[in-house]
Model the fold of this input.
Amino acid sequence: MKLFSALVFCSVILLSHQLELKQDASKLTQYTPDWKSLDSRPIPKWYRDAKFGIFMHWSVFSVTGIGRPDFELLLERGDNRALSYMKENYAPGTTYSDLCKFFTAKYFNATKWVDLFENAGARYVVLISKHLEGFCNWDTKYSERWNSVQCGPGRDLLKELHDAVRNSGVMKFGVYHGMMDVLNSIFKNDQRNHFHTNDFVKRKTTPQLHEIINNYQPDLLWSDADYDAPWEYWNSTEFLAWLYNDSPVKDTVVVNDRWGIGTHCQHGGYMTCKDNYNPQVLQPKHFECCTRAGNTWGYSKHDDIQDIMTPTQVITKLIQVCSHQSFTLLCLPCLHVSQLKSGTSLS
Done:
């Protein structure tokens, strides 16, 4: 019996040693800017162990209280419902950009939010750095006036959450970054050129991504570029090669699979494939099930407590998803239960 125990113990030590060697070897790997090389990078251990995260879908679009993060895109395309909403609720001539002054983040306390997430069992949190209208929730030098420091809250929301997460010592810090910018004239010009030019990427996207990585050193980067433009337009492979080889988070950062047309559910770190993705069978690659806590992806003043997932529903979803080598990212569009009951907006 003692011999058996010793052999088992030695086997565990050898296995652990082999895993350590494998992980150390992966840190020495130099990745080239092509998908075969980039896709070979192992998922960092912290993410394999995390299982449950919180996605804070929160920006200027929250001011409307209708749960549509794509509200600015609807306006840009002349959607009658969006135009009618602006006409009924705001003074004549009010634009989407004018809504920034109403985005005050008055009730946002990063430390309390992190405590809440940690007590709920979440091990990572992802905050929107920039959505599709280009508004930045951090102090960026590449988006003058259209950011949370110079318009609206007057605060670096990304830094506040980053600091609270680091102080917790338990959770990991993630950033969602919407690549496109439907209000930006440079992006529109690239769009008109069918993305054969990429001036927007050179002047905005790449500098902002480097700024986020260097200044905030996130553990997770949730890219959202799977819309009109191919991954070549975004220089995705070049950026990821830098991220994995030379960035300050090269050994620890985790990325998803939305790096431009042709990458969704194909290339990247882990797979998201589609919203609320749960194939219900064992998968060869790690995947993440992005699911909503309520009826919409953004804050909706029409939601009440009965519209929010119950603890039993969250736990059931978590068990179902994680049993197939996956992770659950629960979208929490900045709602407190107290505000849900009263219908008060956090904007």
Notes: The CA atoms of residues 101 and 153 lie 8 Å apart.
